[in-house]
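Recap from last week: sequence in, structure out.
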Amino acid sequence: MSELAIKQTFSLAPQNLDEALKFADYLANSDIVPKDFQRKPANILVAVQWGMELGLQPMQAMQSIAVINGRPSLWGDAVIALVRSSPLCEYVYETDDGETASCRVKRVGEDEQTRTFSMTDAQQAGLKGKQGPWAQYPKRMRQMRARSFALRDAFPDVLRGMPMAEEVQDIPTERELNQSLPRKTEEPKVLAAYPDSKLEESSEKWRGLIAGGRTDPDHIISTITSKYTITPEQEERIRALAPIEGEATNESA
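Predicted structure tokens:
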């Protein structure tokens, strides 16, 4: 075989597991692969395997497969490329009237199918005006949604059930869902009423502590109300335990 022929048949596609592991290590250390795969040989290995099942070469797989929220998916251009290259596809036509995107597809031996996605649909899905591509490129995003619905419905076998990255990006994460849900307000804790019997038992002790300057009615009330509710009458009785200023002066004299 000539040197030119050897160059033309050269391929990076691994032929066995050992080659695949080495291939993944080499590419993980390269700066020309997407960031999702840099320094992540395991991600490369999975992407290459997915690509092989879809009919993509390893380098194509890494450019076409994205991992979004832990879920592998295909970018929209790769999806339509796979479908159009399949012998099962007769045609794919896409249109947009400025409000609604349409995707018409025809599978061999079946009737034409059409899927649409409008700005009304986008609004109902909470996508209209959403920060990012939906605010900057609504026409392109409508096109991707209509394409995703049509191609995944008509050619699930060609796509092996892989979702489109543009659609997966719009699915809220569990964290976003939790943030959007109304938080359950905790009901205030109902404290038990403070028994009069305890007040009677403690009154003389508190009177002595107050007289000795070791506590005061406010402190006693604060301590009780951290565990119980007290009535205005009980609070008044506790405050009455403090000696009247004139009485304290006479005693000290």
